[in-house]
C-alpha cells in the first residue's frame, strides 16, 4: 500500500520533470531569447548583461535546474509580447477561466445527473429518447460549432444574451468576479453551456448505464417490495450507489474543462487563460506558452494522482491487489 | 437430356470481386443502411474534393477572376451591381462560397488523411517494437505514451503547432502551416495505434508460426513486418477510421482558433472562422455552408467507423 503510493507519487514527479524539460527547451532553443527580449537598439553591454542574468552561459543541467526552481516559485520570466512578468498576466486572467470552469462544471454535474436518472427511470419514454438522441448529436458537433450555434440563436436572433466578453466585473481583493453583476451573470450562461455540454453528456451516459445496472439488483426489488415510495427507491437507494464512478470521472474531467476552455474562450472572446494561450501561440510568445504548459500539467498530474489515491482509499479490493502486485 | 455435359466441370473458383461481395464484411455492410448512406456521403465529399478544380465554377484564389463588386452576394440571387449569380453566395471579397468550400474540403481531407497516415505509421512502428522487443524499449515507449495520454490530444497538437511555428523561419510560416498542422495532429494521435498494436503483437509473438519463423532464422524486422503486422491490422483499421473523424475535427478546431491553415490556403475551419465575423451583419451563408459540410463529413466518417468497429468485432457476431 505504502509502496504503491510512493511509486505513484514518484511517477508524477517524473512526469512533471519531463514536462519541465520540454518547457525549458522551448524557452531556450525556440528562437533566440536575447533577440526576443531586447529590441533593435541594443548594445553589446545589454546583451552581455542579459546573458548573465538569464545564465545562458551556464551548463545545460544548471540552467534547467534554475528554470525549474524559478517555476516552482511562480516565476516564469517575462512575456515577449507584453513585456510584463508572465505570472502577473496569468494571475490577472485566472479568475475568468476559473469562474467559467466552475459554472460549466456545475452545469455538467447538475444536468448530467438529472438527465441520467431521468433517462434510466423512464427508459423508452418520449422525453428520454429525445434527450438521448440530442446527446448523440451533441457529441459529434465540434465545440466551436456549438458555441457559434448558441450565439446565433440567443444573441443574434433573440438578442437575449451577450455574445462575447465577461460583462461588468467587480474587483474583490485581487480577484475580478462576474458573479455579482447582472451583466456578468448573463455573460456566463452561453460560454458555460458550450464548455459543459460535452462533459454533461458524458456524465449523463455514465449515470444512466450505472443506474440501469443498479436498478436490476435484488436490494432495489426488495426496497420496492417493502413498499417504499418510488422516489425514495430511485434516489436514496439507487442513485447513491451509482455515485462513486461518477465522482471519479467528474474529477478526471475537471482538467479537460480547463483545457477545452481554450476553444470556448476563443469563440466568446472570454478574457481568460485559454485565450491568452491561443494568442501566445499565434505570436510565438514562448514564456507564456511554457508557463501555461507547466500550470496545466501540474493540474492534470495532480488530479490524476488524487483520483488514483482516492481509489485506493475508497476501494478495499484495490488495496489488497496493489500489495500483492509485487512483481 | 443429351445436351447436358457428361461430366460436371470442376466448380470454378469465384472471381475476386465475387468473393469480396460474399465476404462477411460486405454482407454486414449491405445490411446496415446507415453505413451505406454514410459511405455514399463520404465518397461524394471525397470525390468533389479530389475533382474540385473541375467542379468549382470559379477559381477563388485567382485574383484576376474576382470582382470586389460581387462581395456579399446572397445565395441564388443576382448581385445588385453586376447581376452575377452564385449558388451559395459570395464572401466579403466576392469569392464564390461554393468554390471556396470545395477547395477548403480538399485541404481539410488532405490534412486529415495525411495526419492519420503519419500517426498510423509512427504508432504501428513503435507498437511493433514495444510489443516484439519488450524490455526497456517497451518501458520507454509506453511511458512516453502514458505521459502523452494524460493530456487531451487537441492540447498536445496546439503545443506542437506552437513549437513548430516558433522553429520555422517567419517568411516560411504560411507555406509550412499545412505540413506543421499534419505533423502536430499526427503526433498527438499515435498513442492509440501504438497501444493496440503492442497488445496484439504480444499475443501473436507467443504463437507457433512466429516461433517457427524465428527458428528458420528470419530476422526480427522481417518477422515483425511480414508475419505479425498482417495479423494485427484489423483493429488498426477501426482506429484509423475513428481517428480520421477526430483528425478532421481537430484540424477544423485549430484552424478555427487561428492556429492552423492560413487564410491564403483556407480549410473548412478557416472558412468558419472567417464566416463567424459576418454572423452579426446578416451574411449567414458565409458561415452556414462550410459548417454544414464539416458536420456532414465528420458525422459520415464517424458512423462508418462505428459500423466497422461492430462489424470487425468477433464478440458481437
Helices, strands, pairings?
The complex is a heterodimer of chains A (327) and B (317).
Chain A: H1 2-29, H2 33-37, H3 44-54, H4 60-72, H5 86-121, H6 126-140, H7 143-157, E1 170-172, E2 175-177, H8 182-215, H9 218-225, H10 230-267, H11 273-282, H12 286-314, H13 316-324
Antiparallel strand pairs in A: 1-2
Helix pairs in contact in A: 1-12, 5-6, 5-8, 5-10, 7-8, 8-10, 9-10, 10-11, 10-12, 11-12, 12-13
Chain B: H1 16-22, H2 24-30, H3 33-50, H4 52-55, H5 97-133, H6 135-150, H7 153-167, H8 173-187, H9 190-205, H10 208-215, H11 220-228, H12 233-256, H13 268-276, H14 285-312
Helix pairs in contact in B: 3-5, 3-14, 5-6, 5-8, 5-9, 5-12, 5-13, 5-14, 7-8, 8-12, 9-12, 10-11, 12-13, 12-14, 13-14
Radius of gyration of chain B: 25 Å
Shape of chain B: globular
Number of separate strands of chain B: 0
Global outline of chain A = globular
What is the highest CATH level, the class of the largest domain in chain A? Answer: Mainly Alpha
Rounded to an integer, what's the Rg of chain A over CA atoms? 25 Å
Oligomer class: heterodimer
Q: Major sheet of chain B: size, sense and barrel closure? A: none
Give helix and strand order of chain A, one letter per element, not per position: HHHHHHHEEHHHHHH
The largest sheet of chain A has its strands arranged as: 1-2
Q: Hey, roughly how much beta strand do the residues of chain A contain?
A: under 5%
CATH architectural label of the largest domain in chain A? Orthogonal Bundle
Mean pLDDT of chain B: 81
Could you report the average pLDDT of chain A, rounded to the nearest whole number? 79
Q: State the share of residues found in helices of chain A, binned by percent.
A: over 70%
Amino acid at each position: 500500500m505504502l509502496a504503491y503510493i510512493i511509486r505513484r507519487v514518484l511517477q508524477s514527479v517524473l512526469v512533471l520533470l519531463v514536462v519541465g524539460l520540454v518547457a525549458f527547451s522551448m524557452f531556450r532553443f525556440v528562437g533566440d531569447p536575447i533577440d526576443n527580449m531586447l529590441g533593435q537598439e541594443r548594445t553589446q553591454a545589454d546583451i552581455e548583461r542579459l546573458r548573465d542574468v538569464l545564465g545562458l552561459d551556464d551548463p545545460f543541467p544548471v540552467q534547467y535546474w534554475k528554470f525549474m526552481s524559478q517555476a516552482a516559485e511562480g516565476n516564469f520570466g517575462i512575456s515577449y509580447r507584453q513585456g510584463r512578468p508572465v505570472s502577473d498576466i496569468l494571475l490577472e486572467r485566472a479568475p475568468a477561466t476559473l469562474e467559467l470552469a466552475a459554472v460549466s462544471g456545475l452545469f455538467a454535474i447538475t444536468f448530467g445527473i438529472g438527465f441520467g436518472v431521468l433517462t434510466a427511470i423512464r427508459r423508452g419514454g418520449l422525453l428520454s429518447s429525445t434527450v438521448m438522441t440530442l446527446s448523440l448529436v451533441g457529441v459529434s458537433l465540434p465545440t466551436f460549432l456549438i458555441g457559434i450555434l448558441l450565439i446565433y440563436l440567443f444573441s443574434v436572433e433573440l438578442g437575449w444574451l451577450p455574445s462575447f466578453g465577461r460583462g461588468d466585473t467587480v474587483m474583490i481583493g485581487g480577484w475580478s468576479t462576474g458573479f455579482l453583476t447582472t451583466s456578468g451573470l448573463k455573460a456566463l450562461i452561453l460560454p458555460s453551456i458550450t464548455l459543459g455540454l460535452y462533459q454533461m453528456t458524458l456524465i449523463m451516459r455514465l449515470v444512466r448505464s450505472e443506474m440501469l445496472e443498479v436498478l436490476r439488483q435484488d436490494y432495489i426489488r426488495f426496497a420496492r417490495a417493502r413498499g417504499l415510495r418510488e422516489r425514495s427507491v430511485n434516489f436514496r437507494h439507487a442513485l447513491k450507489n451509482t455515485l462513486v464512478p461518477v465522482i471519479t470521472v467528474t474529477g478526471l474531467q475537471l482538467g479537460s474543462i480547463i483545457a477545452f476552455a481554450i476553444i470556448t474562450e476563443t469563440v466568446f472572446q472570454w478574457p481568460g487563460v485559454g485565450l491568452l494561450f491561443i494568442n501566445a501561440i499565434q505570436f510565438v510568445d514562448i514564456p507564456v506558452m511554457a508557463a501555461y504548459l507547466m500550470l496545466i500539467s501540474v493540474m492534470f498530474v495532480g488530479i490524476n494522482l488524487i483520483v488514483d489515491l482516492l481509489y485506493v482509499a475508497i476501494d478495499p479490493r484495490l488495496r489488497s491487489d496493489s500489495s500483492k502486485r509485487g512483481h | 437430356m443429351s445436351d447436358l455435359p457428361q461430366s460436371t466441370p470442376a466448380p470454378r473458383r469465384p472471381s475476386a470481386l465475387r468473393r469480396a461481395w460474399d465476404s462477411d464484411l460486405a454482407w454486414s455492410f449491405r445490411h446496415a443502411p446507415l453505413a451505406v448512406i454514410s459511405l455514399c456521403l463520404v465518397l461524394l465529399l471525397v470525390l468533389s474534393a479530389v475533382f474540385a478544380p473541375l467542379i468549382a465554377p470559379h477559381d477563388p484564389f485567382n485574383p484576376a477572376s474576382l470582382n470586389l463588386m460581387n462581395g456579399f452576394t446572397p445565395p441564388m440571387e443576382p448581385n445588385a451591381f453586376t447581376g452575377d449569380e452564385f449558388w451559395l453566395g459570395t464572401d466579403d471579397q466576392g469569392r464564390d462560397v461554393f468554390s471556396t468550400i470545395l477547395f477548403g474540403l480538399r485541404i481539410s481531407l488532405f490534412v486529415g488523411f495525411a495526419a492519420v497516415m503519419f500517426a498510423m505509421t509512427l504508432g504501428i512502428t513503435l507498437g511493433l517494437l514495444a510489443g516484439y522487443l519488450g524490455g526497456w524499449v517497451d518501458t520507454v515507449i509506453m511511458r512516453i505514451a502514458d505521459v502523452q495520454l494524460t493530456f487531451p490530444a487537441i492540447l498536445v497538437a496546439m503545443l506542437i503547432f506552437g513549437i513548430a511555428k516558433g522553429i520555422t523561419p517567419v517568411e516560411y510560416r504560411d507555406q509550412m502551416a499545412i505540413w506543421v498542422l499534419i505533423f502536430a495532429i499526427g503526433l498527438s494521435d499515435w498513442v492509440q495505434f501504438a497501444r493496440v498494436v503492442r497488445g496484439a503483437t504480444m499475443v501473436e509473438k507467443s504463437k507457433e508460426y512466429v516461433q517457427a519463423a524465428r527458428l528458420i532464422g528470419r530476422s526480427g524486422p522481417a518477422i515483425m513486418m511480414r508475419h505479425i503486422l498482417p495479423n494485427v491490422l484489423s483493429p488498426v483499421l477501426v482506429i484509423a477510421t475513428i481517428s480520421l473523424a477526430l483528425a478532421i475535427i481537430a484540424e477544423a478546431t485549430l484552424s478555427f482558433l487561428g492556429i492552423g491553415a492560413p487564410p491564403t490556403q483556407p480549410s473548412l475551419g478557416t472558412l468558419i472562422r472567417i464566416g463567424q465575423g459576418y454572423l452579426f451583419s446578416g451574411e449567414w451563408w458565409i458561415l452556414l455552408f462550410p459548417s454544414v459540410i464539416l458536420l456532414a463529413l465528420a458525422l459520415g466518417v464517424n458512423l462508418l467507423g462505428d459500423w466497422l468497429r461492430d462489424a470487425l468485432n468477433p464478440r458481437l457476431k
